Amino acid sequence: MSHTEPLGNFKSEDAPHYDDVLQCMRCGFCLPTCPTYALTGRERSSPRGRVALARAVAEKKLEFTPAIKEEAFFCLDCRACTSACPSGVRAGEVMEVCRSQAHAFYPLGKMGKAFREFILQKMVPSPDLLETSMLPTRLYQRLGIQWLVRHLKVLKLGPEWMEKAEGMLPRLEKPLRPQLPLLTPARGEKRGKVGFFLGCVMTLMYPNVSRNTVRVLSHQGFEVVTPRETKCCGAPHLSEGDRETARQLALFNLDLFLAQDVDYIVTDCAGCGAALKEYEELLEERAEHDRLARFRSKIRDVSEFLMEVGLRTEGLQEITASVTYHEPCHLCHAQGISAQPRRIIRQIPGVELREMAEASWCCGSAATWGLKYAEDSRKVLDRKLENVKASGAEILVTANPGCQLQLAWGVREASLPQDVLHLMELLGRALPPD
Amino acid sequence: MISSTAIAHLKEKLGDANVLHEKEDLLTLGYDSTPGVHHLPEVVVYPTSSEQVVAAMEIAEREGLPLTPRGSGTGLSGGSVPVKGGMVLCLTRMNRILEIDEENLTATAEAGVITLDLFNAVAAKGLFYPPDPGSQKISTLGGNVAENAGGLRGLKYGVTRDYVMALKGVLADRSLIATGGKSVKDVAGYGFKDLLVGSEGTLGIITEITVKLIPPPQDKRTILAYFDDVRTAGEAVSRIIAAKIIPSTMEIMDRAVINCVEDYVKIGLPRQMAALLLIEVDGHPAPVAEEAAGVRKILEEVKAAEIHVARDAEHAAGLAAARRTALSALARVSPTTLLEDATVPRSRLAETFGEIERLREKYQLKVGTFGHAGDGNLHPTVLCDERDHDEMARAHAFYNELYEQVLAWGGTVSGEHGIGLAKKEYLARQIGPGGVQVMKRIKQTFDPQGLLNPGKIFDEGDPCTKAHVEEGFRVSH
C-alpha cells in the first residue's frame, strides 16, 4: 500500500493507492460490521465514509483535515469491514496508511515527539529495555501498592485511561523471553522443527500463555526454536502511524527467522501473526520478493498450524468445562482464521463449546485504542460481555493478548464468573504433566 | 449558503449531535451506492421524531433549502443523492420497532429500522416479513418503502408495496399524515398510501410504517443448477413458470458474476460454468416436495450441466448470502460497476440474455449479469472505469439499445431500484410525455414549492439532474 508518487493532497510517502480507494462502490456492506459506526451512527466513522474521505483527499476535493486524522485514529483497525467487503476494499489498511499521513501533516510538539520517538523507536524495539521498564510495575504489585491503589481509588483523580490501564494489568511475572530455552526438544515421534515468534505482550504480560504454546508444540512432536533476539513485530508502530520503524523491525525479524532452519514460524499472538503475514506488503520495495514470499509461506498462527498438521489427541486429559470463544479481529478478519480455534476446542476431551452471539465482534481493545477512547471502548466491550454472559459458558477463550487483557478486565469489572484464557492455556491444561 | 442562524435553529430543535455541517460529514452524505453521482449537501440532520422532521422541514422551507431524505444510502438509482444541495434528512436514528401485533399480523416500525432487524424481530415471534432486498442487512425499511424495493423473494411474495398497510409521515406543507391502517380491506378513497410507496422521497417524508406479516413457510428446498449456456438457464426459468410452478426464489448469475462471487465467498462455485440458477421452493411440505421434483425434471429436460440440492438450511442460506454479494463482488473486476434494472415479461428471458450478449459484443464491454430471473428482473452490469470516457460512452450506448428492446418487449426500465437520477430519460420513454405530465401534476399537488428531493424521477431541464449516464460520469460537486 505504500506509494511514492504524490497522490492528490496526500504527502508523497506512504499514501494510499488510488485504486484501493476507487474500488469502493459504496454498497454499505461494511456498515453493520463497523464498531465505530455502531457507536456514532455517523457515516464518516464508517468504513465506507472513511474511504470516501481518503478518496476526496486523493482527488484534491479535501485537504487532509484534522477530522480525517481523527477518523484515521478512531478506526479500530479491526478489519471487520475487510471481511465484509465483497469488492475487496481494505478500509482498515487505508486508515493505517492515513495514520502515518496524519503524523506527516500534523507533527507532534517537541515533547510529544520526543516521547513518541522514545517509546516507538527506542523502547519497544529493544526487548531488554521493554523488560526493564516493566520492573517498577512488578515491584509496585509485589509491594502491595497495587492493592492500596485499587482499594483507595486514588486513580479516580487521574485521567480515565490511566485508571483503566492500571486496572487491566494482570499480575505480572518475570518476562518469559530470557527463560525460554533456545531449543525445546520435540516429545514423542518428531514431526518437524518450528520457529516460535514470541510477542512482546506475551512475554511481558502473559508468559504463561507462551510457555504453554511451547509445551503444546513440543508435545505435538515439534522441536521449537525461540530466537532470543526476536524484536517487536511492528504492529504497534503501524497502529501509531510509524511505518518507518515498523519496516526496520520487519527487516530485522525477516533476516533473523529466515536464517533459522525451520519448517514453519508459529506465533500465539493474533496481532503478531497478522503483522508478520503482511510483511510482504510492508516491505514490498525494501526486500527481495522471493525472500518475502518464503517468509510469508512459513507464518502460521498456532491454531492454524495445529489444524494443518493435525492435532494429536492421544494422551490429552479430560477437562470438564463449557467454553465460549471470542474471535480476535486480527485472527478472524485479518488472517481469516475462524474455524481452526473452534476445532481445537472441540477436540479437547470433555470440553463443550458454546457459541456466543457475535463472536467476531471486536472487544474494544484494539492496541492503545481501548485506552485512548476509554469510554467508547467500554461500550464496545459491554456488547461483548452481554454475549459472553448469555452463552453461560464457564470459560471464555480467546487467542490474542490484547483481547485477553480487555476481556479479563471487563469480566472482573462486571463480576462475571468466567475464567479468561488463551486457547493455548486451555489446551495446555489438557496436556499430561511434564 | 445556509445561514449560521439556521444551523443554530436546527441544533436547538434537533440537538447538537443531530445536526452536522462539517465538510467531512457533508462529503460522506452526498452519495449512495450509485456510481458516479456525488453532490454535497449544505447540512445534514438526523431527526429522532416526526416532530423533529416537521421542524427540519420548516427551517428548510424558510431557508429555501431543497430537502433530500435518506436512510443507509444503499440505493442504486441515485434517489438519495442531494443533487441540488440543501438539506439531507437522514432517518437512521429513527430506528425503533414500535409494535408487533400478533393478533392482526402486522408490525409497526420507524423508517430507520434496518430491514433485517425487522425480519428477525418478527421471526422471533414465528412470523414472516417476505420482502428481502439484496441489501437487507443494511437498508432501512423507510428506504425500502420510498423506493418500493424488491428482492430475492419477489417472484412468489411480491415487493415492498404488497406488504405496506399503513404509513405515517410529514408532507411538504408540514402536516403530519396517516394513511391506511390495520384493516385488511380498505377501499376508502384514492390509494394515497400506494402513491407514497415508491415515491422516492418526492411527495413526503415517511416516518412510520405498518407492514403486513404472514406465517412463515413450513418447508423449503434449495436447488442449484449450473449451465453451459446462459440462454439455456433463461429457458429453464421460462419453462418452470410455464409449468405453473412458482418458486419463492429463482436467481441467476452468469460466469463473470460466479467468478467474482467465488473470489469473495470461496464456497466452491464452479468457475467454468456459463450460468447458475439458485432456486428455492417453499410452502407446505407436500407441495414443496412435488414442486422441487417438477423443477428438477425441467432442469434435466433442458439439460442443465449439473443439478444439486442444498445439503441443509445452513448451506441454502450460504448460497443465498453469496448471491446477495453479487453486485459488490463485481467491483473486484473494475472500479466502476454500472448496474441496470431491466425487467422483461418472463417469457422473454432467454431472448434478453441473447440481446445482452449481442450488445456486449457490439460495444466491446465487460458485462456481468445477475438478477431475479424468476420475475424477469435482470441486473446486467457493465464493468468499466469511470476515468475512461470512451468506455463510458459505449456503456451508455449499450444500455440505450438494451432498454429500447426491453421496452419493445413490454418490459420496464426499473423492476426494483426506482428511477432516481439514473433512469429519468428511460422512464420518459416508457410512460411517454403524457405519463410524465401526470406525475409532475401529482408532485405539484403534494409539493408546490418543489422542496422535496428535487431533480428525481423526471427531468426539470437542469443539466446537473440529467441521467448520469448522459453526463459521461463526471463527479460533480
Structure characteristics:
heterodimer; A: 434 residues; alpha/beta; Fumarate Reductase Iron-sulfur Protein, Chain B, domain 2; Rossmann fold; five-stranded mixed beta sheet; four-stranded parallel beta sheet; 9 strands; 52% helix; B: 477 residues; alpha+beta; Uridine Diphospho-n-acetylenolpyruvylglucosamine Reductase, domain 2; Uridine Diphospho-n-acetylenolpyruvylglucosamine Reductase, domain 3; Vanillyl-alcohol Oxidase, Chain A, domain 3; 4 domains; seven-stranded antiparallel beta sheet; five-stranded antiparallel beta sheet; 15 helices; 16 strands; 19% strand; globular; disordered C terminus
Helix content of chain A: 40-55%
Tell me the name of the CATH homologous superfamily of the largest domain in chain B.
Answer: FAD-linked oxidases, C-terminal domain
| Mean pLDDT level of chain B | 93
The stretches of 5 or more residues of chain B where confidence is low (pLDDT under 50) are 462-477
Radius of gyration of chain A equals 21 Å
Secondary structure tally: strands of chain B: 16
Q: What structural class should be given to the helix and strand makeup of chain B?
A: alpha+beta
Which chains have the largest interface?
A-B, 33 and 40 residues
Number of domains of chain B: 4
Distance between the termini of chain B: 14 Å
Q: What is the tally of helical segments of chain A? A: 24
Proportion of residues in β-strands of chain A? 5-15%
Largest sheet of chain B: 7 strands, antiparallel
**Largest sheet of chain A, order of strands side by side?**
1-3-2-4-5
Short description:
Chain A is an alpha/beta fold and 434 residues long. Chain A is 52% helix and 8% strand. Chain A has a five-stranded mixed sheet with strand order 1-3-2-4-5. In chain A, strands 7-6-8-9 form a four-stranded parallel sheet, with helices on both faces.
